[in-house]
What does this fold into?
Amino acid sequence: MAKLVTSNFNVHNAKQFVESVTESANNIYYVMIGNHIPFPEGDGTAPTGNNSPEDSFYQVYRDGIYGKKINSTDIKHMINNNLWANGTIYTQYEHDNGALRDQKFYAHVKEANGTYSVFKCLYNNKGAASIDEPSALETSADDDVYITTTDKYQWKLMYQIEESDFNKFATSEKIPVYPSANVSGNAVPGAIDVINVNTGGSRYNSVANGVIKVSQVGGNTRIFELESLQSANVTTTSVSNGSFQVERVDLFGKHTNGHINSTSFNTSNNVANGVVVEANSTVIRIQDIAGNFFGQQSNVVVQGQTSGAFSLISDIDSSTSSLSANTDFYKGSIFYIAAGAGKGASAVISEYIVTGSARRVLLANDTGFSSVDSTSLFEISPSVTIRGDGTGAEARAIVNTQIFAVDTIEVTKRGSGYTFATATIVGNTGIAVNSSTSASADNANVNVIIGPKGGHGSDVVNELYADNIGISVDFLDDEGGNTPANNDFREISILKDPLYSNVVITLANTLTTDSANGQGTSFTANEVLTQNASTTALPTAKGATGVIKARFAGTINVSNVYGQFLTTTAANGTHRIFGESSNTSSTIASFKTSDKSTSNFSTFDQRLRLTGFVNTATAFVVDEQIIQDSTDAEGVIHSINTHANGTINMVGITRKKGNFLASDTAQNVFYNVRGQTSNAIGYFTDTAGPDIVPNSGEVIYTENLTPITRDNSQTERIKIILGF
It folds into this structure.
């Protein structure tokens, strides 16, 4: 039996990982920088790692230099980097397209203000190339209506990203997802947004347009008297000399030369004129047309008589049909207010009434028609009957009047609650083929596109197949003295739930005996220490934990620390710490990790630091191996810190194997280390680190890089993409 792991399962796994970082009391992850030693094959190309326990775990810890915690702001779902490009054919969303994930069905644009907007393509004009860039300026996140660009593409705004957030996560292949509460909150479950035309059929003659001559005839809110006027939608090129207004315009035929300016029109070749009723930067709608307007597209200029604006014409969408003289010719068709007062109102025609020269329609309802008047432009077209398990969806068929076939379906009311639906074209009675013959239309074939669960924009992560995760962490110079900012690195890794090896806690209050709570008066070595996750007296929920390895006056040293201890502050509250064996409790004044000043567990230094170092001979060099004579312990020098007088203060090493012994100068006991390249000899009096217990937690990701050189005046931004 063939099995299918759905894309939702992949996205679910990605969501679970994000939640494991962003939710409280969950897993803790760090990005670790490692390996300052050149690759055996050379640094020109980073070698591919392998999944052996040695290479993917033990060696990763040996190579570790420093790390930084991944915070909730450092992780995002990621999708493909589909920057909108002129001339691209974008795939429109279709609920039965199983290959949608791997297709360009969405695109992002950079707005004029620097914000990035991500759009889903709902309709691609029958597979045409996109030539008009969508913009969020034409819609908004809380708008459940979609924008249609001049190329007839239909786009849905999914979310927007500030430029700084985009730059933090974006790569050449992926961009981050920032779900919008407004978009998801305004999604309509089961709305019908698009109905595709598979075949347009033929003989769809029952179309007309014009203006309202008399509204609400005889006081009946459902009866309107109509007047047929020639009209057209004119697509212009770049408009010059201002912009078109509601005004009369002239159409000039071929001009005298190849230039378009106000002095080059062949005004003697005025072929037509009309009145502009609507205009934008690319399309003007003209009615009351006189003259030879249609078919004039090549080297033709339209000019406003009032504004003086003019432009070449690239396309004329003509609507020239006259109102029929046959009673009920338009019965069952849709009556739609295309412009003017009441724009957008629609209703089915119950009766088409012909009385002498009068042409009237009786509508099935008057919803939305109360404001319709003589400024209103109407269109009559075949209606669309939608059947399914939802309610409220309505649509009309747009007919190509040159071939009398259905060109597109315009959804006028989206409805809701549909999980399946069919659509049929109706409203074509009494169609005349010629003077002696009539026939019914050759029905168009259409299919309804059902939106995703919850509606478009309800769950952008699932809808855009965001099963990749982006992690972006900035290493800011030396992180306030807590990480080294020298040498180079060749490896990045992600550690899950590592343990801190030595946290020094300074207690905030005096230990007291509380018999009611069973509290003791002293912490004991090797007992488990737990911090209460709440501010109640007793530990109701556990926060950070560790094991006490030493106690002193006012301080305790804790190893194997998981989580993040909190100091007693107004912001943190009185989160008490409890010794699980001694029943002793206290609060925390401050803490640090080993010899570092870190107070929030955000960074760690994974080097073994040999402190109090004395160089007794030739100088040691960075990246050389050192071996201790008496113990055979070994490591590789990452960096050498010196005093102002030039003497060595500390040597940081990686790739530690074995246990280094500190010298006791008071007892005249010395344990020398030798540089295997420099032949230098030295000793040290104390050690610190590594901050993280070696081999604790899990290594869930590791990657080799070509070398990156660190500097105390720069920031490295580490970006990692994880696929699920």
